[in-house]
Specification:
Distance between the termini of chain A: 41 Å
GO molecular function (chains A, B): ATP binding; isopentenyl phosphate kinase activity; kinase activity
Mean pLDDT of chain A: 87
Number of helices of chain A: 9
Structural class of chain A: alpha/beta
Binding site for ATP (chains A, B): 97, 223, 277, 281
Family (chains A, B): Belongs to the isopentenyl phosphate kinase family.
Number of domains of chain A: 1
Pfam family, one (chains A, B): AA_kinase
Largest interface: A-B, 68 and 67 residues
Oligomer: homodimer
Order of helices and strands of chain A: HEHHEHHEEEHEEEHEEEEEHEHE
CATH class of chain A: Alpha Beta
Organism (chains A, B): Arabis nemorensis
Largest sheet of chain A: 9 strands, mixed
CATH architecture of chain A: 3-Layer(aba) Sandwich
Strand order of the largest sheet of chain A: 3-6-2-1-9-14-15-12-13
Radius of gyration of chain A: 20 Å
């Protein structure tokens, strides 16, 4: 199939997906991936990305040796006259979950002070942990035939000023997308021009990418159904199905209609989460929505996440869909 | 210790080290690291980098979970009032050895043609293999207390034009070095503006870095003593101790004095080596030497490599040192 280059350049990014740390790792087990979830997430992503209805055979792209084997399995001979699958343009960003947080919080990397030996060691240790997670996610998506490219923010030129993005070279992200690859970024330890160093969270990366790449929609995959009015473990917690973001950046719940409308939404922030929890997520999501980009917060590896990734919610949100939509209220 | 920033900026890079794929992996076992060599290499690097004579306690910087353990071992409490170790500025580049080559040669990534499904899959598979090696090398050096930052050329903005460097963003390399880190780059699959894609070899990266960072010397760590006049497995192979590079880029052996001076140096190129073998290495090394930067090709994990890394050969090459010095003949 001939690809029209000029048309291809102007084609927009369809979706930026955040794979929440809580959804793809086992939060209470140090540096442990939630393999089952990750496999389903990869499969759903592939489904959402395929253009046209023709189901296409998966071309596995992780030809690494399996543990305990001395052989590499790849069926390249079958690929000879395989037709190219047309994927729509996605960018993936993942959180750290049970990777990186231990190293970051023990050393205080998020607070800066790179001249201290413990912070410098923690910076290196944090990056080793989150880049090893990144490699595993790149591999899991590649096994599903998604042509992933791992991109670590720090070495790829991202830096911060008091934890907000100060610089980010997006040209390689754009070039990769243009060449048909799916960039996979992650929360990372970076240099900060005020603090010395800090943690750049995946949510802040998403906002920056959304501002510059203007995707059609953004999906946050998490480990609960969406945003609740109080910690979701509490019995009376109510799922907030739609949040409207206003011109001034403020936001209010429009569905369901809450009895106490001026009640602040309570959320839980895990103690080891050095980059803030649901509160940060909502305010980052609100800033994205203000750009006119719909944001869906949804439980990973469910029918609800598949529908969100497919873009089925863009016009009307079906009654039976469970999750939180955050939209700009014009 | 107070660091003078302006002085620090102007401090030069001391050494660029190439960890040859043959030295740090087991060439005949797919995707297998040569752990013993890598550990000694890391230890020798640390020794070479320490400034001043005071032996300093190693602060391990890989706090990842060990396989089979659920715990992370890090002795951060001991780090509280630990003094900062002053390291001189090194950059590390490694080859692929038994990583990446299988994926690259099976798919033909080095020949380009990214529009073919097999090449695109091979591009992703090659990068997964070489980045997993990069992570292991970053971890091994970090365990020895070297504050390493893995930098994958493709996502960090390197691209080629017919396999030679077309673009490379060195600002993050420079910033990392300035902040006291040791960048660790590697041979990688990249986009090529003529071929579509190709393999950017570690040796080409070294030359580009040498041209722009102007290190005092460059060390190639390999699995044989140095460059020989024929494949080193042959009984009469003679180690070339000194090669002089001339103004026009040509080079000749000056020590030992060979009987047939016009004899072309024969070298072996392994069949699976998609980036060329010793011939490429010598011509890349010659181009570095032409800049007035000494190049030492030496067997990894030996007393000879330690002396080369230490910079002991800069004035006089001792008679008992085994390896190959490549120098500009003024």
């Amino acid at each position: 199939m001939e690809l029209n280059l000029s048309e291809s350049w102007s084609r927009s990014i369809r979706c930026i997906v955040k794979l929440g740390g809580a959804a793809i790792t086992r939060k209470n087990e140090l540096e442990t991936i939630h393999d089952e979830n990750l496999e389903i997430v990869a499969c759903q992503l592939r489904q959402a990305m395929i253009e046209g209805s023709a189901p296409s055979k998966v071309i596995g792209m992780d030809w690494s040796k399996k543990p305990g084997s001395s052989q590499i399995s790849c069926h390249v001979d079958e690929l000879g006259d395989h037709e190219s699958t047309e994927f729509s343009r996605f960018v993936v960003v993942h959180g750290a979950g049970s990777f990186g947080h231990f190293q970051a919080s023990r050393s205080g990397v998020h607070k800066g002070g790179l001249e201290k030996p413990i912070v410098k060691a923690g910076f290196v240790a944090t990056r080793i942990s989150v880049t090893s997670l990144n490699l595993e996610i790149v591999r899991a998506l590649a096994r599903e035939g998604i042509p992933t490219i791992g991109m670590s923010p720090f070495p790829c030129g991202w830096s911060t000023s008091k934890r907000d993005v100060a610089s980010a070279d997006l040209s390689t992200v754009a070039k990769s997308i243009h060449s048909g690859f799916v960039p996979v970024l992650h929360g990372d330890a970076v240099l900060d021009n005020i603090l010395g160093c800090t943690i750049l969270s995946g949510d802040v990366i998403i906002r920056h990418l959304a501002e510059h790449l203007k995707p059609e929609y953004v999906v946050f995959l998490t480990d609960v159904l969406g945003v609740y009015d109080r910690p979701p473990s509490e019995p009376d917690a109510v799922l907030l199905k739609e949040i409207a973001v206003e011109e001034d950046g403020g936001w209010k719940v429009v569905n369901p209609v809450l009895e106490h409308t001026d009640k602040k939404v309570e959320t839980s922030v895990a103690a080891h989460d050095t980059t803030g929890g649901m509160e940060t997520k909502i305010s980052e999501a609100a800033m994205i929505a203000k750009l006119g980009i719909d944001v869906y917060i949804v439980k990973a590896a469910t029918t609800h996440s598949q529908r969100a990734l497919n873009g089925e919610l863009r016009d009307v949100v079906p009654e039976d869909w469970l999750g939180t939509v955050i939209r700009f209220s014009k």
